[in-house]
Amino acid sequence: MVSVCLENGKVLVRSQSRSRRPEGFALIRLLYGGICNTDIELQRGYYGFHGTPGHEFVGEVVESDDRRWVGQRVVGEINLACGKCEWCARGLGRHCPKRTVLGIVKQPGAFREFLTLPEKNLRRVPREIPSQEAVFVEPLAAACEMLDQVRIPHGAPVAVLGDGKLGLLASQVLQAHGAQVHQYGRHKEKLRIAEWSGVSTEIAKKLPVARYEFVVEATGSAEGLKQAVQMTQPRGTVVMKSTVHGLVSIDSAPVIVNEITLIGSRCGRFEPALRLLAQRKVRVDAMISEVLPLKSAAKAFRDAAKTGVLKVLLHD
User: Among 250, 267, 266, 178, which residue's Cα sits nearest to residue 214?
Assistant: First the structure.
């Protein structure tokens, strides 16, 4: 089978034997996979990664212990927890210290013709969701995670800082939740995607100071957190969505003096994301910049890293 590998900063395409399916796992034929910022950071050395990346995917089950999965279109939770530790017992398998993570930590990823994932991690894709849009379930679930972590009242003003993929998903999720969302970005054409959902937008020339109780930082840059803190009212909350490779410097004085709460936010439950896509409450089709075959993965990674590009998809 064709498999994409990252090795010493290079994107390689290799022919490998089909993955062996362990007991309790499903064998899944890749339909589409999405390149995200984390994959690009892995190429640059994040986690000291080498191997097959890819954690945003939709596929078709071809083998499983439970025959009811066979033939189903599925997406998959990316954290493979041990199921035995204290964290797993508390329902926090996403923080299991022994977990592996699809395409990120000790678990070969989705950028290959066939992948394996535990059946318990699978979620069926409703027929209302096109396959290319189903690729967005994992990052959309990460955006939905904010609402599991922070109680944001209906009608509350919320600022989203950044107009990349996750910023656009976060603003649409918050808008669907009933918040009054104002998104700050640098690209008019990207912000128009959020405007489709009713989000008000603004080119971020001069950011406001202490205006919002809730600020979502999704710039993907080292400066984003400092800017988000500046925008937050005393006793307000900053939801941190950017994963930046390397150290991020910040003056802690305004955080402490203004008693601002910083919340790290990562993966989320898939069910809310699937509902939003099935009900057409979030627009993701306009975020697809390019669709390329697995054999063109090197070009796909180069294009995905370009300024202004949103989602690049790979397909079998």
Answer: 178
